[in-house]
From TrEMBL:
HAMAP family: Ribosomal_uL10. PANTHER family: 39S RIBOSOMAL PROTEIN L10, MITOCHONDRIAL. This is Large ribosomal subunit protein uL10. It comes from the Bacteria. GO terms for cellular component: ribosome. It comes from Novosphingobium ovatum. The gene is rplJ. The keyword rRNA-binding applies. SUPFAM superfamilies: Ribosomal protein L10-like. Gene3D superfamilies: 3.30.70.1730, 6.10.250.290. Keywords: Ribonucleoprotein, Ribosomal protein, RNA-binding, rRNA-binding. Belongs to the universal ribosomal protein uL10 family. Part of the ribosomal stalk of the 50S ribosomal subunit. The N-terminus interacts with L11 and the large rRNA to form the base of the stalk. The C-terminus forms an elongated spine to which L12 dimers bind in a sequential fashion forming a multimeric L10(L12)X complex.
Amino acid sequence: MDRSQKADSVAQLNAVFNEVGVVVVTRNLGLTVAQSSVLRNKIREAGATYKVAKNRLAQIAAQDTDYVGICDFMTGPTALAWSVDPVAAAKVIVEFAKTTDKIEIVGGSLGSVVLNADGVKALAAMPSLDELRGKLVGLIQAPATKIAQLTTAPAAKLARVFGAYAKDAA
């Protein structure tokens, strides 16, 4: 990698660090190509990105960003996962780490808040942004549904009473 490629890599990572909501640092302990492909596909489906980056270049890119705290985690064979959704990358990495011992969660950062491995796992246990939106829409719709049920309930009761009288009269 020549000097201009390194500068491009640093600039790209710096732009990523200025845009994302979470960065998770993992240590690869001998992932096979097939396992790495499965992980990358799962991460891509979740709207996140997974990239092996040179530690020194990633540390330079993280300077002057909220993610400067993850520099301490970048030793050995590391990779970065990031997403705009604060939960997506962590959730996929934690789920994948449960299936294999070839990847270790080292830590991460949620903006300027540095997380250890347990913090990343706790973050992954939270509902994603889409799940929260769904719950919120459900909560907003619930009162309207209940009001509609209450307004139609007396009419339905009257109809049943009239139906019962009609059966008795016949």
